[in-house]
From TrEMBL:
It comes from Hydrogenophaga laconesensis. Residues 178-204 are annotated as: Disordered. It comes from the Bacteria. This is Single-stranded DNA-binding protein.
Amino acid sequence: MYALDTKAAQKADQTGNRITEIGKYVGTFTQVEDITAATGTKGLALRFEANGQSANLSLYTKKADGETIMGFQVLMAIMTCLQLRNIEPKDGTVKYWDRDTNSEETKAAKVYPDLCGKPIGLLLETEGYNKTDGTVGTKMVIAGVFQAKTELTATEILERKTVPEMLPKMVARLHHRPVKASKPASGRPAAQSGHSGSGFEDMDDDIPFRDPLSYRGAHLVL
């Protein structure tokens, strides 16, 4: 005998809506949360939606001592492609899956509305990771960023290119990242994804776009 579990029924519908394939996607961030790992490393938790499917992504940007790491470069690429000079965290709410209640819940959080609701192009790869139960899981990671309308990368935008040339080569390099031989120490942030190319060193001195108006229609929750 089985008794109806409505929460489990709803969860079954959600599994088919996850982005699980390596590839090129154009969509929007529907929520971006400011996060800090147990080690003090800072970053962002992003929910990305494209064509009715979604993926939960993370970028760790700075260690506790302020040293920047690879996720910082990815964030700078995202800001360049969205033509944003600055982003500031604001009070808001995010939705998350609560394993204890087996349902989606809402909590207060620091969020980045300026990153949300605007078209953005992402190249996504799959990456294996060691789960706490000893098995290997798979997650989606950002392997590249491009401007949705033009398909220009951050480097090409900063170099004032008008014809996209880098993206096809970046797509061709997409692959699955297997679990590394050595297991990361407990509490260490997941391996970070980088952005191909350069062009970020002098971006504060010569940014080829104007300050956009604050986006007022950003979605903080799904």
